[in-house]
Design goal:
about 30% helix; alpha+beta; about 325 residues
């Protein structure tokens, strides 16, 4: 693991003053001698410290990460596609209230939920996304339906909900996404007029390479605690939080979305690999350095077209994991 010092300036967002200072961490592994399947996941980045985590919570998060890895790994192990694997993986996290996606989505300032998701197939660079859905139980399913069942790349708001309904996807009342933990976070932010780092993060995602060398990426989120109605972050934007191109790389990002949008983090990483010949870790570090220079923080997971993988984040921690035929491992803190 290598560490690079990156300083953040104080930033103002909608009257909420946020300050961060952290180091960037990189973890990577070279490509195997022969292509093999691999799955890499994240469950959000932010201020995640051992001192603030109980033993019970630590165990719950690790078990949840392993469950997500198991879902995607089962598909890849059986010779399934990277696309199916990343969808199955994030579905598990959408259904787990520990994560800010699906059931555990944060509240908007109005006390409702607006969810975003995107998915991309590296074989064809087909992509699909939904933004601001309020009734779709699993937004990643809606994103894939947009990719495969429409001529478009993104649907938003009521149009996205209606499209999902027309495709026969499961719909729920918006209150399905409610959890006491997220309600308490909303009340605190509205009262204190200050967002913690955790209030701005929580996106989940997966990238994978299958036995045929095809790669894919998926990202899904509930957004930012107490966000204004209609606010859309980087998660549903192809090239910002999600990107995949066979032979190059697949990326899923998590962090302060406004900054990831401005840098176009996912596409920037893949373009640096494709056109500048950089390795995936170097490309990711450069992209996140741009995010930091603007005042943002977060992290990315990357798989190269050759099977190499990397975690890079400039926050105090990132829920993360990797699985391959050699086994699976998960981590939470920066020093793991």
């Amino acid at each position: 693991m290598t560490m690079t010092l990156i300083r953040f300036a104080a930033i103002a967002l909608g009257g909420l003053i946020l300050t961060a200072c952290a180091t960037a961490a990189s973890e990577s592994a070279p490509a195997p001698e022969t292509p093999e399947w691999r799955l890499v996941i994240h469950g959000g980045a932010g201020v995640i410290l051992r001192s603030q985590m109980t033993a019970e919570a630590d165990a719950e998060y690790r078990a949840a990460l392993h469950a997500a890895l198991d879902a995607g790994s089962d598909i890849l192990r059986a010779g399934g596609s990277a696309l199916d694997a990343v969808e199955a993986t994030v579905l598990v996290m959408e259904d787990d209230p520990l994560f800010n996606a699906g059931k555990g989505a944060v509240f908007t300032a109005a006390g409702t939920h607006e969810l975003d998701a995107s998915i991309m197939d590296g074989r064809s660079r087909d992509a699909g996304a939904v933004a601001g859905v309020t009734r779709v139980k699993n937004p990643i399913r809606a994103a894939r339906a947009v990719m495969e069942q429409s001529e478009h790349v993104m649907f938003a708001g009521t149009g996205a909900d209606a499209f999902a309904e027309a495709q026969g996807l499961e719909l729920v009342d918006n209150t399905y996404f409610n959890t006491d933990r997220r309600r308490e976070a909303l009340e605190r932010v509205l009262e204190q007029r200050t967002r913690s780092d955790a209030d701005r993060h929580g996106t989940v995602g997966a990238v994978a390479i299958d036995r045929d060398g095809n790669i894919a990426a998926a990202t899904t989120t509930g957004g930012m605690t107490a966000k204004a109605a209609g606010r859309i972050g980087d998660t549903p934007l192809i090239g910002a939080a999600t990107y995949a191109e066979n032979g190059v790389c697949a990326v899923s990002a998590t962090g302060h979305g406004e900054y990831f949008i401005r840098v176009g983090v996912a596409k920037t990483i893949c373009d640096r690999v494709k056109f500048a010949g950089e390795d995936i870790t170097t490309a990711a570090e450069v992209a996140l350095a741009e995010v930091a220079a603007l005042g943002g923080d977060g992290g990315v997971i990357v798989i190269g077209g050759d099977g190499a993988y990397s975690f890079v984040f400039n926050s105090e921690g990132m829920y993360r994991g990797v699985s391959s035929p050699a086994g699976a491992s998960v981590a939470i803190y920066r020093d793991e």
